[in-house]
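stage 2 :: seqdesign
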């Protein structure tokens, strides 16, 4: 086999489609092929004998010296891919194939050149043009990022859809409860009405009966018949007519009071539900709070003490039934937090043009790690089966719909305070009023 001579090898190195530079330990150029000459604009006759950093100031000097030192010391190859250091030399990279890269992406390989005795005298820097592959991979990476962003957006939309669906289900549930409450209120109202009317008539009848009895006793006493008078007194004592006269009147008054209570509950149920009212109107927040308390009173009356601190507030433009749902959720949650013997403060007022309703308790408080998640759908700190995690989420959604805010402050072991902030007028209505 014929041996390839140096002139032939040098010719190959000149024409090969990669950069070939021979460097000594000081990074002085000993060989500079045509690839380097064409891309750098510096001829081999000029480059040989100069320091690489003088020829190409953009080349990272410290990095090149460490690479050379590594090859000379370890006597092994060193490699740098375009992903690690894309542009070792500032060569133009725009070509018809890519038409995209402004600079050449380069792979660099450093390997030792030995003399016949084995000593390393030079290091060969082989520079490969990786622009085509780099552009394709970068484009692919960009597409992957776009796909990932689209996937993330789809995930967010799916989560939002699930949240909206859950809130819709909860809203429909509350609407159904409201419709049921309104129906029950209507059905109760009729018998309560005639029972109350009958009690009024019964009271009148008993008054007349007792008046007649009293007149009988007066007439008998006027007859001067001791035996008849004694017999009547005995009958009165046996029947305890004096007690019956007082107790029957008291029973009727208590029954009428109970019916009045039922009537107030019926009215509050109707006001709370407002099935036929989904329009915006001027709502009395105090009335809404009181109606809500009456509806849930049986659940909380034996557990907590309600302390009202109502301020002087104007009516607000709102959907009253929806705000009542918010108040109900906040008060019931507070009652669960305090347990038996606790206190719940209901405070209202105005501040900076907003109307606020504050529900504060002296219960267990909320862990700081959970504060940022309170309004997430399905998030709950209650035991399994004790809560759906939708109450506060729905309340937050309703307040947002009213262009308001729902804030929370809590200290573990001391209690929590939820504050509903509402504008007096909705933005559209306020704009129309100012026009």
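stage 2 :: out
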């Amino acid at each position: 086999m014929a041996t390839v001579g140096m002139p032939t090898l040098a010719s190959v190195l000149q024409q090969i489609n990669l950069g070939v530079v021979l460097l000594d330990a000081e990074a002085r150029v000993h060989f500079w092929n045509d690839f380097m000459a064409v891309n750098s604009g510096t001829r081999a006759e000029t480059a040989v004998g100069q320091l690489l950093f003088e020829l190409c100031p953009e080349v990272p000097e410290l990095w090149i010296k460490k690479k050379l030192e590594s090859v000379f010391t370890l006597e092994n190859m060193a490699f740098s891919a375009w992903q690690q250091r894309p542009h070792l030399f500032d060569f133009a990279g725009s070509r018809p194939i890519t038409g995209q890269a402004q600079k050449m992406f380069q792979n660099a390989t450093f390997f030792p050149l030995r003399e016949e005795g084995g000593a390393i005298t030079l290091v060969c820097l082989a520079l490969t043009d990786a622009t085509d592959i780099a552009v394709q991979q970068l484009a692919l990476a960009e597409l992957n990022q776009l796909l990932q962003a689209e996937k993330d957006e789809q995930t967010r939309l799916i989560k939002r859809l699930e949240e909206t669906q859950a809130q819709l289900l909860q809203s429909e549930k509350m609407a159904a409860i409201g419709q049921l409450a309104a129906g029950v209120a209507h059905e109760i109202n009729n018998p309560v009405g005639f029972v109350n009317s009958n009690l009024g008539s019964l009271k009148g009848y008993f008054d007349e009966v007792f008046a007649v009895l009293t007149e009988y006793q007066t007439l008998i006493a006027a007859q001067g018949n001791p035996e008849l008078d004694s017999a009547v007194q005995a009958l009165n004592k046996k029947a305890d007519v004096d007690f019956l006269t007082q107790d029957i009147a008291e029973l009727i008054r208590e029954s009428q009071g109970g019916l009045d209570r039922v009537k107030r509950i019926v009215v509050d149920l109707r006001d709370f539900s407002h099935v036929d009212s989904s329009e915006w109107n001027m709502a009395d927040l105090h009335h809404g709070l009181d109606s809500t308390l009456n509806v849930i009173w049986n659940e909380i009356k034996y557990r907590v003490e309600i302390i009202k601190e109502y301020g002087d507030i104007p009516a607000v433009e709102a959907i009253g039934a929806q705000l009542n749902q918010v108040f109900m959720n906040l008060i019931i949650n507070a009652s669960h937090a305090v347990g038996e013997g606790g206190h719940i403060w209901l405070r209202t007022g105005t501040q900076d043009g907003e109307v606020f309703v504050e529900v504060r308790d002296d219960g267990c408080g909320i862990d700081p790690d959970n504060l940022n998640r309170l309004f997430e759908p399905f998030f709950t700190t209650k035991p399994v089966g004790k809560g759906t995690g939708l109450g506060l989420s729905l309340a937050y959604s309703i307040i947002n719909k009213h262009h308001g805010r729902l804030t929370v402050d809590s200290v573990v072991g001391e209690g929590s305070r939820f504050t509903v902030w509402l504008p007096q007028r909705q933005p559209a209505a306020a704009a129309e009023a100012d026009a």
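stage 3 :: structure notes
- The two ends are 100 Å apart (CA to CA).
- The first strand starts at residue 19 and ends at 23.
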